[in-house]
Amino acid sequence: MSDPRNPQPTTLYEMIGGAGTVRSMVEAFYPKVQSHPLIGPLFPDNIDPVKEKQYLFLTQFFGGPPLYSEQYGHPMMRARHLPFEITPQRADAWLGCMKEALAEIGMEAGLAELVLQRLQGPAYHFVNKEG
Ligand code: HEM
User: Fold this and answer.
1) Residues flanking ligand 1, CB < 6 Å
2) What structural domains does the chain harbor?
3) Rounded to whole angstroms, how far apart are CA atoms 81 and 74?
4) What pTM value is reported for the model?
5) For the chain, which terminal residue's Cβ has fewer other Cβ atoms within 10 angstroms, N or C?
């Protein structure tokens, strides 16, 4: 419970609205990824398991419960992306799909900007090939 005498820092997870919002983000995001010419071909036809892992991961990454690590251990996300050629252009495409997804679900612009800023670091960190 929040106690006004002892305010706790709010997580991005809480700020965006918790589980329901993370679920909507993921649902709006993957159709855009799949139809993107630069990154769509990297993903399997059955996208449901990827969606689920992303839901677990983003929950934890935004400061919610550590759902991904409970199931899969240490995220090691850069290592998990090494099998795929990730160029700066692909990182831009991934972030572009996320930006569109946030607009589609109606996230307030300032919050959407915060979310995108938070994702930018990892996206460019996963780049493992020159464009
Ligand atoms: C930079 C551009 C990115 C590309 C091109 C990309 C591409 C991919 C691909 C191809 C997969 C594997 C799908 C499969 O076959 O299972 C994957 C998995 C995943 N990606 Fe990304 N990704 C990018 C950025 C990100 C970012 C920024 C995040 C989160 C901060 C992220 C989170 C994940 C997660 C959680 C998985 C599932 C990992 C697992 O198997 O447990 N990705 N990504």
Assistant:
1) 39, 42-44, 50, 53-54, 57, 61, 72, 77, 80-81, 84, 86, 90-91, 94, 119, 122-123, 126
2) 12-125 (1.10.490.10)
3) 14
4) 0.95
5) N
